[in-house]
Amino acid sequence: MVQYSQSVDASFAALSDPTRRGVLQQLGHTEASITELADKFHMTLTGMKKHVGVLEQAGLVTTRKVGRVRTCRLGSHSLEQEAAWLEQHRRLWAARFDDLDKVVDELKRKEKSSE
Amino acid sequence: MSDMQMAAAPAANKTTTDRRSDREVVITRTFNGPARIVFEAWTTPELLMKWWTPKSFGITFISCEADVRTGGTYRFVMGHPAFDKPMAFFGRYLEVDPPKRLVWTNEEGGEGEEGSVTTVTFEEKDGKTHLVLSDLYPSKAALDEAMASGSIGGYPEQFDQLDILLAGSPEARSA
Prior knowledge:
The complex is a heterodimer of chains A (115) and B (175). With 115 residues, chain A is of the alpha+beta class. Chain A has helices at 5-15, 18-29, 34-40, 45-57, 79-113, and strands at 32-33, 61-66, 69-74. The longest helix of chain A has 35 residues, at 79-113. The radius of gyration of chain A is 23 Å and the shape is rod-shaped. Chain A binds chain B through residues 2-4, 6-7, 57, 59, 76-77, 81-82, 85-105, 107-108, 111-112, and chain B through 3, 5-6, 12-13, 15-22, 25, 27, 29, 31-33, 37-38, 40-41, 47, 50-57, 133, 140, 144, 147-148, 150, 152-153, 162-163, 166, 169, 171-175.
């Protein structure tokens, strides 16, 4: 699992803060605007924007702006989804590279026989 | 250069994938041959055609053109029974530095869409080549989108069928 460590780090960093954990919990119930979250957690709008920004960077929360209101909800891009994608990606390349091994062997043989 | 690898067929080396940053995915693999040979296999169209479309995936090359020099272009056209029409993958080589480094753009995303840039480095040690392939996307959103759409390898969404193909394919031996 070493290869996922970077994204896991980002998630842990995002989760290290109690307010951000609270925001995630809240968004687990229902989506909310940044203003609503700021009120709920007794924070300034700017402060809440920063927290949401960190959660967004980690892929834990997504936001969309409709008119003047930015609505937040739990990220659709979960770690599991990312891990699944990376695994598919790895399989494609592993299959390619297995065929490439054969090409490399072939070229090595040719080089050797022409020595 | 050692010829000892010829003695026994070694097990396939391990392929790793890693999301290195918000917008970069890195793949690594070691090959049992010198860098000049591995590089040749990446830069000669006739050789590329032998491995770029794994047989186990049922994808086949229709044509493979690659003018592998800095500023040169490439165009890979592939087909699969599940596709209505062939898929084209194209772009430009930004750096060609044999046998160490290869950089190209992926431009099949379409007009106005900034594509990813692929960098491949070949590092030779004791007759083996350690390969590192990096796909750098223009933004976090672009990589997230690629992941969300289920497309892989910088492939457009039409390649979603790969999900199905992959589900039915045997586990890679290197797992």
